[in-house]
Amino acid sequence: MRTVIASILLLTGACYAFVEFSKSALYDVYDFEGEISIPKCNVGCRIYASTGGYFQTSNDGLDPYAKNLIIVDNDNNKRYSIASIASGKDAQKRKIPLDFKSPSRITVVNENDKDDKKYNMVLYVVDLATASDNHDYEMYDIYDVMYPAGTVLTTNTDIVTFMGVHPFFVSAQPSNQPNSASGRLTGFDNALNANSDGCPYSFQTPPDSPTFPGFNMFFPGPIGSIVYGKQGPMKVTVNDGNSRVFDLSMDGCIVSNGFSGCSRPGVGPLPTFRFPQREVQDSVVLSSNTDDYAVTMTVLPQLKDGSKIKIDDNTGFGSKTITGSTATNVHFDKTENIFIGVTKLSTPEGYIIRYNTTLVPKPPTATGTTTVSSSTTVEMTSPTTSGVEKRTSLNVLALLVGSLLMRFE
Prior knowledge:
Layout: E1 10-11, E2 19-20, E3 24-28, E4 35-37, E5 45-50, E6 69-73, E7 78-81, H1 82-87, E8 98-100, E9 106-110, E10 122-127, H2 128-133, E11 137-141, H3 142-145, E12 151-154, E13 159-163, E14 168-172, E15 181-184, E16 203-204, E17 215-219, E18 223-228, E19 234-240, E20 245-247, E21 252-255, E22 263-264, E23 268-269, E24 280-281, E25 284-287, E26 293-302, E27 309-313, E28 318-322, E29 328-335, E30 337-342, E31 350-359, E32 377-381, H4 385-402
Parallel strand pairs: 11-13, 19-32, 20-25
Antiparallel strand pairs: 1-24, 2-3, 3-10, 4-9, 5-8, 5-10, 6-7, 6-9, 12-32, 13-18, 14-17, 14-19, 15-16, 15-18, 21-31, 22-23, 25-30, 26-29, 26-31, 27-28, 27-30
C-alpha cells in the first residue's frame, strides 16, 4: 500500500449544541441547566432520546446523569426521566418515543448536583403534526443496531432515522437489482427532498439506475436519516465511525462533525451540533488497500474567511484548496489514497463531501459474479471482523504517518 499522509486535528465542541429546525429541535446535556422550556411541545410533540448505550457502572445500565434530567408535563403533573426514554424500544428494536398528543407545557428539569459527571446525550423533539405527517418512518438508536447481530428491518418504511452520541457508518453492498437510497444529516422531518429547512442530501445513489451501486454513508452524529427507494431488498450494515478512514472502494460521503448543511429561510445556516465531551477529528483519509480508483467529489462548504479544506491525492500528489461557500467539484483520474485536511471550524462552519469512485482495472482483469438475495427485508447486521480489522489497520497507519507530518498547523 502506498504511503498515506494524514493529519488529525482534534477539536472541542461548543458548550451548547442546541439546534432549532422549523419543526424540530436537538438538545444535548449542556443545554439543560436549571429548568428549560421545550416550545416545540406547545402544539403537542414527540420526544426521542439517546444516551451512551449501556452503562456498566450503573445498576440498571442507564446513564446516571440522564436519570436526573426530568421531562415534566406541567399540565398533568407527570415526570419522565430522559434516561428511561432513551432505553425504550419495541420487539423490532425501534425506539419508543414519549408523545404529548395535545398542546402541553413541557419543561426539562436538571436534578443533578452541580459537580455530577455529565455524559453525552441527545434529545430530539418534533412537533406532533409533523411527526404524524411523516408516518412512514422508523427510528433506531445506533447502540441497539450496531453491536447485536441479526437485526432485521422490513421494507415497508420509506425513511429510517438513526440517532446516537457516537459517529457511525451505514453501508450497503452493490447489487445487480435496481434500488436507490439518499441520506441527510437530519431527523425524519427533513429527510425528504422537499424539506422545510433546506437540508441538502449528504449522499444519493444515481436516479433510475438499472443496478444498485452500494454506499458507505457517514453520520458524525447526533442524527441522520436514509430514504429508501424500496425497489428491491437491501442489506445494510452499521459500523463504528470513529476511525475516520473511509473505504475508497465504495461511493459515500464525508461530513464535518455536527454539520447538517441546513439553512432555514430567514435565518440562514443552522448551527453545528458538536458534543462537548468528544474529541473531533475533522481531517480524514479516503483509502484503498491496493487498488486504484477514479474519484469524483462534490464539496458543499460553509466556511468563513480564513477557513479552508485541502484535498490531497497522495498517489499522484495533486491538490485542491477550497474556501468560502460555493459548491466545488474535484476529480482524480487515478488514486489510491486521498487526504482531506481542515482548519479549525466554528459554528455554523462545516462541509459535506459526496464522492463516487470507479475501479481502474488492472490487467488481467478478474471477473466475478454477484449473488443477490431474494429476501423481502432490509437486514441490518453488525460489522464483520475482517471489516473492522481493515479499518483499524488503516487508521493506525494514518495516525502514525500523521504524527510525522502535519499539513495544517
